[in-house]
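Priority: medium. Attachment 1 of 2:
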């Protein structure tokens, strides 16, 4: 679990204004394995800051994405947010909609990104690898 001091150390060099609400939103994303939605972030932060608005959550998430701290994972139903910005695969459950990082395959995703960058005239800005199936809780 990432502490608030570690979150401050991550965000401060980026020149972001570090309000308590912004830090709480960043902490929720960074410490969530489940790639939360805006609503889930809002609900979790509201436990500590009952007067926070959904607009604050949206604007902070946009700022964190622009700063490269988190990635927005756009899906058909709704976006989710991922603080793991290293090359990896996401496992997406087609039943419950959960999204988690794969614990295997990071080296392969990173290697593929390198091959594409090295052996083509394409400059890779980012990548996203999703595998769809059933999570442990939804498997028969």
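Attachment 2 of 2:
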């Amino acid at each position: 679990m990432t502490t608030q001091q570690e979150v401050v150390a991550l965000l401060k060099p980026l020149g972001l204004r570090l309000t308590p609400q912004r830090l709480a939103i960043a902490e929720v994303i960074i410490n969530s394995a489940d790639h939360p939605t805006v609503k889930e972030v809002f609900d979790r932060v509201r436990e500590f800051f009952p007067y926070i608005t959904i607009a604050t959550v949206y604007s902070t998430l946009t700022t964190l994405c622009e700063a490269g701290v988190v990635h927005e994972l756009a899906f058909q139903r709704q976006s989710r947010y991922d603080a793991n910005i290293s090359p990896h695969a996401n496992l997406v459950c087609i039943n419950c909609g959960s999204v988690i990082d794969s614990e295997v395959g990071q080296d392969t995703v990173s290697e593929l990104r390198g091959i594409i960058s090295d052996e083509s005239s394409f400059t890779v800005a980012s990548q996203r690898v999703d595998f769809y199936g059933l999570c442990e809780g939804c498997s028969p």
